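Dear Dr. L.,

I hope this message finds you well. Following up on our conversation about the binding site, I have prepared a predicted three-dimensional model of the protein together with flavin mononucleotide. For your records, I am including the exact sequence and ligand specification that went into the calculation, followed by the structure tokens. Please feel free to forward this to your student if that is useful.
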Amino acid sequence: MSLIDKLQWRSAIKKFDPAKKLTADQLDNLLSAVQLAPSSYGLQSYKVIVIRDAETKAKLRAAGYDQAQITDSSALFVFASVTNLDNDFGKKFIDLVASTRNVARETLQGYEQVVLGALNGRTREQNIAWSHKQAYIALGVLLSAAADQGIDAGPMEGFDAEKFDEILGLKEKGLTASVIAAVGFRADDDRYSQMIKVRRPKEELFIHI
Ligand SMILES: Cc1cc2nc3c(=O)[nH]c(=O)nc-3n(C[C@H](O)[C@H](O)[C@H](O)COP(=O)(O)O)c2cc1C
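The resulting structure of the complex is given below.
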């Protein structure tokens, strides 16, 4: 199957088969894809909480408008933005660049100023809104990577972020939930995946200049 065929096959699954679980390799592959997602400056100003514990999923379902995907999928990915994008966060990232590329910290001073300037030039709320956008890119990569492996995923914005933060103790970790995705395998009678995909025609979607 080509990538386009796989994207045609994928669907935001509503009804997962609770008996079908991701293998350790499948899950690890998805984590690798999310890890490789691009982000502005490469900062990755989010964390991804991967929940397979049934009890936690049940609590989250109540905070997710009772969407069955939350409990019936094999794993629930919660993308959560860092809430305090301060100098320390920026500097630690530059430390990581230096150690990963084995370059002297001083050579990255210009880059550091750019990164810190960007973070300090916005309010806390603006930084969180920006982080949410970064998290959505990681979500997109997850959805495509899952489709590539024949794994199903259901992205969801329909949840109470404050309640998710509370249940998962995210506030204490300096995080707040951005967006979530249920990952696993569709039930044979999932209705939506059997429907024709609705997309705007290319003539309407794209403007060529
Ligand atoms: C960011 C995002 C949030 C979504 N939130 C929900 C949701 O809370 N519940 C739901 O059933 N579907 C949700 N969807 C699924 C969309 O309705 C679905 O992707 C869209 O209708 C296109 O269908 P397809 O993904 O099956 O091609 C969400 C999709 C995205 C990308």
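In brief: The domain at 3-84+125-205 is CATH 3.40.109.10 (NADH Oxidase).

With kind regards,
A. P.
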